[in-house]
Design brief:
The protein has a domain of about 90 residues: 60s Ribosomal Protein L30, Chain: A (2-Layer Sandwich), CATH 3.30.1330. It has a four-stranded mixed beta sheet. The protein has about 150 residues and is of the alpha+beta class. The chain has six helices and four strands.
């Protein structure tokens, strides 16, 4: 038996993980898990969203009337989902409706987990050498000598 993703919507509503509308989305770019765009959005708005949020998954499903029925958002054509475990579950069930593709490997600017920036910590020999230079400098300047 196939379960419908709509069964998770009441929980999402209770958890308040939605970011409705384009204006609120633009203020919350770092918190977005994915964006749901309705099928009745204008072509110009759709292309702007595809460009502006090209690094976020964008899904195209439902109508604005469906969003009104599910969530109570009237005339909403764009709905963001905040980062959360529930959002990930909803995305997993709706990912077949994704309209933008992730960046390809060669052109991707994202770093992989294994690509850690190189940081070199000084080894003990160079640390001891610097400490020895400080001690000699202090001796030459008379610092640390007992009073006569």
């Amino acid at each position: 038996m196939q379960k419908s993703v709509e069964r998770l919507f009441p929980f999402a509503l209770k958890a308040r993980i939605f970011i409705p509308g384009r204006e609120r989305l633009s203020r919350s770019k770092s918190r977005i898990q994915f964006i749901l765009v309705t099928e009745d959005i204008s072509q110009g708005s759709y292309e702007e969203i595809l460009y502006e949020y090209r690094h976020s998954p964008i899904l195209k499903k439902y109508s604005s009337q469906d969003l009104d029925e599910f969530f109570g958002f009237r005339n909403t054509k764009v709905l963001g989902f905040s980062k959360s475990g529930l959002s990930k579950s909803i995305y997993q069930e709706l990912k077949e409706f994704r309209v933008n593709k992730p960046e390809s490997g060669a052109n991707s600017t994202k770093r992989k987990r294994d690509d850690k920036p190189e940081t070199r910590s000084p080894d003990s020999a160079s640390r001891q050498r610097r400490q020895g230079e400080r001690i000699e400098k202090n001796r030459d300047s008379g610092i640390g000598d007992p009073p006569d």
